[in-house]
């Protein structure tokens, strides 16, 4: 079976396991918070943090970047009523392993001139130190005019350890 | 217990349930694909699509926007070896309910002048029609110089129905 066929087939059992109340959850997150975390394949944020269906927005991108998540967070807070943000980065993150110059060299080599040109001004948001990056993201949210006051007061930052499955609070 | 205490407490049972092989998964996704989907609280992509820990990058943002996900997808493909992208948007998405002008008016009203100024040039990427938005995102990826050829050839687009838990393929 192809990858996509596998996803569709797994979805058949999932959909038949959903309860009526799960199928009629409202659009706004029931627990009024958003989690920003990494796209990393070893993270399972809902299970790792006990987030039930309908509870929270989960935003994921390379590195769990708050800056990259700002569009989503603004929509989450201004249109869908969330008031708390939890930032979760993790050990052994890919973002610790390269610089903007590195990835741009890879792009130019693998994808050619048009891609090199397209990525010229881009910031891929790598970071050299994990806990500092958590602190910087929390500071970014606290100082953004687009983050609501309640979220500024309550924003917290965690590190998830892929080697143990545990989170530890940084901010 | 506070929201954050609850997350930490749930994490304790999760971490103790992780197997040794789950704790030693490698950084690059084992099945070499990435899913782009929405931050919506009613979506549980890993369970809904049978994605096991370590299989795939999962990128989530408001609307499951491929454009917003491009930085993450480039890192995923160029540095971590993924070759397939699956875009999954969903019914009853918040992005169907507003325009850029609407959210900018809300931002100005709720957050004041600095925020209004900060969001002036921003595109919040709302869409008026769901299946068209899936097709447009797939087209965006197929025409981006930053997407690798294998991913261009295999990109697919789905709608997840929050009312049934089922996915249906659009592209």
Please, could you describe this protein's structure?
2 copies of one chain form a homodimer. The first copy, chain A, has helices at 3-17, 20-23, 45-49, 70-80, 100-111, 113-119, 130-143, 149-154, and strands at residues 33-38, 56-61, 84-90, 156-160, 167-169. Chain A is of the alpha/beta class and 171 residues long. Chain A has a domain at 26-94 and 129-169: Beta-carbonic Anhydrase, Chain A, CATH 3.40.1050.10. Chain A has a 5-stranded mixed beta sheet with strand order 2-1-3-4-5. In chain A, β4 and β5 (167-169) form a beta hairpin. In chain A, α5 packs antiparallel against α6. In chain A, 47% of the residues are buried. The mean pLDDT of chain A is 98. Chains A and B meet through α1, α3, β2, α4 and α5 of A and α1, α3, β2, α4 and α5 of B.
Instruction: Determine Rg of chain A (CA atoms, Å).
Output: 18 Å
Shape-level CATH architecture of the domain at 26-94 and 129-169 in chain A: 3-Layer(aba) Sandwich
Q: Which fold name corresponds to the CATH topology of the domain at 26-94 and 129-169 in chain A?
A: Beta-carbonic Anhydrase, Chain A
| Uncertain spans of chain A | none
| C-alpha end-to-end distance of chain A | 45 Å
The percent range for helix content of chain A is 40-55%
Shape of chain A: globular
Structural class of chain A: alpha/beta
Note the main sheet of chain A: 5 strands, mixed
């Amino acid at each position: 079976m192809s990858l996509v066929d596998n996803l569709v087939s797994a979805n058949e059992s999932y959909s038949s396991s959903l309860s009526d109340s799960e199928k009629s959850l409202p659009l706004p997150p029931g627990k009024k918070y958003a989690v920003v975390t990494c796209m990393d394949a070893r993270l399972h944020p809902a299970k790792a943090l006990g987030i039930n269906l309908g509870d929270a927005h989960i935003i994921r991108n390379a590195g769990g970047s708050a800056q990259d998540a700002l569009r989503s967070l603004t929509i989450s807070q201004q249109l869908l009523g969330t008031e708390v943000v939890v930032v979760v980065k993790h050990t052994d993150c890919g973002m610790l392993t390269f610089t903007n110059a590195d990835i741009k060299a890879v792009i130019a080599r693998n994808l050619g001139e048009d891609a090199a040109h397209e990525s010229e001004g881009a910031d891929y948001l790598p970071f050299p130190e994990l806990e500092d990056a958590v602190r910087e993201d929390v500071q970014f949210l606290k100082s953004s005019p687009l983050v609501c006051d309640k979220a500024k007061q309550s924003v917290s930052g965690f590190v998830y350890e892929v080697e143990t499955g545990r989170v530890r609070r940084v901010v």
